[in-house]
């Protein structure tokens, strides 16, 4: 297996079989996985007074153990857009698990069951 690490270098373009580094060098690959940090897109709630106390790290929404936002029991948040006191690692797998948990909790609420 031929693996090459280029740490700390900016990327200007990502293709399906190549990346272009900030300096213009293009690296070819059989497969390219885009694994980069993403800032949460919470612009829709940033300036809403009711959510002001629910913004956390990098303007993410703070959730409780049931993934509910603040004092809004019918609003759930998952993935890069949320922050939990556990300081979970932001990975695709974790977001998928959060999605299943939020869906389960929404169904429970719809049937008047405890979360």
Enumerate the spans where pLDDT stays under 50 for 5 or more consecutive residues: none
How confident is the prediction overall: mean pLDDT? 87
Q: Total number of β-strand segments?
A: 7
Note the total helix count: 2
Percent of residues in helices comes to 10-25%
What sequence of helices (H) and strands (E) makes up the elements?
Answer: EEEHEEEEH
State the separation between the terminal residues, measured CA to CA.
47 Å
Strand content: 15-25%
What strand order characterises the main sheet? 1-2-3
Coarse morphology: elongated
Radius of gyration: 19 Å
Structural class: alpha+beta
Specify the biggest β-sheet.
3 strands, antiparallel
Short description:
The chain has 115 residues and is an alpha+beta fold. The protein has 2 helices and 7 strands, in the order βββαββββα.
Can you tell me about this structure?
The chain has 115 residues and is α+β, with helices and mostly antiparallel strands. Helix content is 20%, strand content 19%. The protein contains two helices and seven strands, in the order E-E-E-H-E-E-E-E-H. A hairpin with a 4-residue loop joins strand 2 and strand 3.
Main traits of this protein?
two-stranded parallel ribbon; elongated; 115 residues; alpha+beta; 7 strands; three-stranded antiparallel beta sheet
Topology at a glance:
Elements: E1 11-14, E2 18-21, E3 26-28, H1 43-46, E4 61-62, E5 68-69, E6 72-76, E7 82-83, H2 92-110
Parallel strand pairs: 4-7
Antiparallel strand pairs: 1-2, 2-3, 5-6
């Amino acid at each position: 297996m031929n693996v090459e690490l280029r740490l700390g270098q900016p990327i200007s373009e990502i293709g399906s079989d190549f990346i272009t580094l900030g300096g213009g060098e293009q690296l070819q690959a059989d497969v390219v996985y885009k694994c980069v940090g993403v800032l949460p897109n919470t612009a829709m709630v940033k300036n809403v007074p009711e959510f002001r106390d629910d913004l956390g790290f990098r303007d993410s929404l703070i959730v409780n153990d049931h993934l509910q936002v603040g004092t809004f029991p019918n609003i759930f948040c998952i993935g890069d857009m949320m922050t939990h006191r556990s300081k979970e690692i932001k990975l695709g797998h974790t977001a998928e698990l959060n999605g299943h948990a939020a869906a389960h909790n929404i169904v429970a609420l719809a049937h008047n069951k405890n979360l």
